[in-house]
Specification:
Length: about 450
C-alpha cells in the first residue's frame, strides 16, 4: 500500500461481493473507496434474493391456508393486501441497506455515490472527477436480459419491477424456465394470480438433474400453473387494457403483465473495460484467473460479472478471498467445487454436487438411490404433491458425488448435506447415521435400495 494513489483499493459496485471485499480490505488497514450508483446491498439484498424470499414466504401462506382444513381448521375467506406486503418488504430493505452502509463505515471504507468508469489501469472516473487506486475491483453483478422480440422489451417487466408492482395481476405470463422464472411463477400463483409459464425447452431448470427437472414440471402443473413447454413468445402488443402475448404455436394469451425471466448477463456495459484492455468473454463477462485477477495486473473482478457461479455466497467468498490475499497476507482462493444451491420455487428445489449425467461422464458406473413419497403433512392436508430425493454414488469408491431434492425444507436440508459432500462422505457414512424421525431428511440416511436401470 502506497501514498502514490488516492486509495489502495477502489471497488466498483456495493453488492454482496464488493462490500465484503471492501470492508475486509479496510479492516486490514487499506484505504478503500466503494462506488455505487444505486443502493448499497446490490442485486441480492435490494432487487433479488432477499425481497424475493420475503414474497415467497407470503405466497406460501396461501398454500398453508388450503391445507388447514385437513387439520380441522375452518378458515374464513382470506383476503390478501398486496400493497401492504410491498410496503413491509420495502421497510425491511431500508433496514438492510442501512446495515450495509454501516458495515462499510465501521470498517473505515468510504462509500461514494455515483457511476464508476475505469479510465486507466489505476484510474476511475466518478461524478466528473478522477480518482486513483493501486488496485481496482469490479463487482457490478448482472442485469436482466430481455430478448429482442417484437413488443417484449417495450411491455415486459423484469424481476426488479415484479418486486415493486402496485397491484397483484389477475393474470401473468412468465417467460423463462430458470431460477427466477420458477420462483416468481410460484409467488404469483400462491397469491392467486393465474400464471402461464412459457419456456422453449421440454423441461424447466436447465442444468439441474433431469429427474429433478421432470419432477418439478409435474409439481408446477399440480400447483395450478399453466405450462407451455416447447414454446416461445413471438410478439407482445397492447390490447385495450391488457397485453396480447403471441406464442410460437400461434396461441394468443391476454395478460395483465408479462415477466421476462429470460436470464441475466454480466453488468459490464459502460464500465470502460474495453478501453482499459480488460479481456472479456463472448458473453461480455470479465475473464479472471483463480485469484479473480484480470489480464490487467491491477484490475480484479468478483461475482456475477465474471459469470463463474452466479450465486451471492460465491460472490461473497470470492470477495473475501481477494481481500485476504491482497491485503491480509493470507493467500487463498474461493472454493467453487460442490457449491450447493436452491430454487425457492413452490415446492422448492435444492442440490449439491454433480447431476447424474455429469457424474456418469466423469466416473462411469454409478449407484443411484431415489425416494419418492407423500410428506406426512400431505396425508391429512389432501395435497397431491410428493417429495423426490436422489443420491448419486460412485460405484467403485462409494463416494457420494451428488444429492438432489424437490420438496418442503429442501434448501435447509441441503445445507447440512453439502458439508458432508464437501468432506468426501461415502454411502457407508450416511448409512451409519441414525435418522431423526419423523422427518423428510431422514430419508437420506435410510436409502438402501439402488435404482435398477
Amino acid at each position: 500500500m502506497t501514498a502514490e494513489y488516492d486509495y489502495d483499493l477502489i471497488v466498483i459496485g456495493a453488492g454482496s461481493g464488493g462490500v465484503r471485499a471492501g470492508r475486509i480490505a479496510a479492516g486490514f488497514g487499506a484505504r478503500v473507496a466503494v462506488i455505487e450508483e444505486n443502493r448499497p446491498g446490490g442485486t441480492c439484498v435490494i432487487r433479488g434474493c432477499v425481497p424475493k424470499k420475503l414474497l415467497v414466504y407470503g405466497a406460501s401462506i396461501g398454500g398453508d391456508l388450503e391445507d388447514a382444513a385437513g387439520f380441522g381448521w375452518s378458515v374464513d375467506k382470506a383476503v390478501h393486501d398486496w400493497p401492504a406486503l410491498i410496503t413491509a418488504k420495502d421497510r425491511e430493505l431500508d433496514r438492510l441497506e442501512s446495515i450495509y452502509r454501516n458495515l462499510l463505515a465501521s470498517a473505515g471504507a468510504e462509500l461514494v455515490a455515483g457511476r464508476g468508469k475505469i479510465v486507466g489501469p489505476h484510474q476511475v472516473s466518478v461524478n466528473g472527477r478522477e480518482i486513483s487506486g493501486e488496485t481496482i475491483l469490479v463487482a457490478t453483478g448482472g442485469t436482466p436480459n430481455i430478448p429482442d422480440i417484437p413488443g417484449l422489451r417495450q411491455y415486459a417487466i423484469t424481476s426488479t419491477q415484479a418486486l415493486d408492482l402496485d397491484n397483484l395481476p389477475d393474470r401473468i405470463i412468465v417467460y423463462g424456465a430458470g431460477y427466477i422464472a420458477l420462483e416468481f411463477a410460484g409467488i404469483f400463483n400462491g397469491f392467486g394470480s393465474e400464471v402461464h409459464l412459457v419456456y422453449r425447452g421440454d423441461l424447466p431448470l436447465r442444468g439441474f438433474d433431469d429427474d429433478i427437472r421432470q419432477h418439478m414440471a409435474e409439481a408446477l402443473a399440480n400447483r395450478g400453473i399453466h405450462i407451455h413447454h416447447g414454446e416461445t413468445v413471438t410478439a407482445v402488443r397492447q390490447d385495450k387494457k391488457r397485453l396480447a402475448v403471441e406464442l410460437s404455436d400461434s396461441q394468443v394469451i391476454l395478460s395483465d403483465q408479462v415477466l421476462a425471466a429470460t436470464g441475466r448477463v454480466p453488468n459490464t456495459q459502460g464500465l470502460g473495460l474495453e478501453t482499459a484492455g480488460v479481456k472479456m468473454t463472448d458473453r461480455e463477462a470479465i475473464c479472471v484467473d483463480n485469484n479473480s485477477r484480470t489480464n490487467i495486473n491491477s484490475i480484479f473482478a468478483v461475482g456475477d460479472v465474471t459469470d463463474r457461479i452466479n450465486l451471492t455466497p460465491v460472490a461473497i467468498a470470492e470477495g473475501h478471498a481477494f481481500a485476504d490475499t491482497l491485503f491480509g497476507q493470507k493467500p487463498r482462493q474461493a472454493n467453487h467445487k460442490n457449491v450447493a444451491s436452491a430454487v425457492f420455487s413452490q415446492p422448492p428445489v435444492a442440490s449439491v454436487g454433480q447431476t447424474e449425467d455429469e457424474a456418469r461422464r466423469e466416473h462411469g458406473e454409478l449407484d443411484v438411490y431415489e425416494s419418492r413419497f407423500k410428506p406426512m403433512k400431505n396425508t391429512l392436508s389432501g395435497r397431491n404433491e410428493r417429495t423426490y430425493m436422489k443420491m448419486i454414488v460412485v460405484s467403485s469408491s462409494q463416494k457420494i458425488v451428488g444429492i438432489h431434492m424437490v420438496g418442503s425444507d429442501s434448501a435447509e436440508i441441503m445445507q447440512g448435506l453439502a458439508i458432508a459432500v464437501n468432506m468426501g462422505a461415502t454411502k457407508e457414512d450416511f448409512d451409519a447415521v441414525i435418522g431423526i424421525h419423523p422427518t423428510a431428511a431422514e430419508e437420506f440416511v435410510t436409502m438402501r435400495t439402488k435404482r435398477q436401470d
